[in-house]
Write a structure and sequence with these properties.
By secondary structure, this protein is of the alpha+beta class. The chain has 2 helices and 12 strands; from the N terminus they run βααβββββββββββ. The longest helix has 35 residues, at 48-82.
């Protein structure tokens, strides 16, 4: 029985925040740029050096904002171009020390040249620290298995399917979450595409504690 894994939502949220930040930065700076240009046009004797520096920094904010928007939008287009993969495992539950198969399926929506497809099993440890009003989260990824598919030119509508075995190390830790600490297991898929931003997605595998020997 195959259990379909769900992609994480953090990347979607991050991309939405990126676009919002870019719009906010560019939108906030644009009126200031217009105002500065009008001041210089109406008053030729105004301080050109000071006004010029102000224009430079305001214009830089606009450029940065547009660049942030472009990066996120192009990445979205890249995902739409190749189509989202489906990742599933052949076990309803996975325990520490268990082996399992990861099944990968993807239909390419457009003709796409793929230089590499990498599928990795990763243990992610996160720790959150607070100092006064500041909160910091430190994340460490530890690879536990990896597979790479060879490069290939996929035609529109062509489907890629493969299955590979992976294993949670016997000395590993099960999934757990507390207020300040977290351990999670992820299957990360990364598709390198010629001429487009790489596609990357993470799928969580919930790992239970190992069986008690007896």
């Amino acid at each position: 029985m195959l259990k379909k894994l769900s992609p994480g939502s953090k990347k979607i949220e991050s991309r939405g925040c990126g676009i919002f930040f870019g719009l906010f930065l560019a939108g906030s700076a644009f009126p200031g740029l217009v105002a500065l240009v009008r001041i210089l046009s109406d008053d030729p004797e105004s301080e050109w050096v000071t006004s010029g520096i102000s224009i430079f920094f305001v214009a830089a904010c606009i450029v940065i904002g547009l660049a942030v928007i472009a990066v996120n939008v192009i990445s979205w287009i890249s995902e739409a171009r190749i189509g989202k993969p489906e990742v599933s495992i052949n076990a309803e539950s996975v325990r520490v020390g268990d082996g399992f198969s990861v099944n990968y399926s993807q239909t390419f929506r457009q003709k796409t040249e793929v230089t590499k497809i990498r599928m990795s099993l990763i243990k992610r440890e996160s720790a959150t620290f607070s100092a006064g009003t500041d909160t910091t989260t430190v994340t460490h990824d530890e690879p536990a298995g990896e597979f790479e598919a060879p490069p290939k030119l996929f035609e529109a509508g062509e489907k890629l399917n493969f299955s590979r075995g992976m294993k949670i190390p016997a000395g590993g830790m099960h999934t757990f979450r507390t207020k300040h600490n977290e351990i999670s297991w992820l299957v990360r898929v990364k598709v390198d595409i010629t001429g487009w931003p790489d596609y990357s997605e993470e799928f969580e595998v919930r790992v239970l504690a190992g069986r008690v020997a007896g």
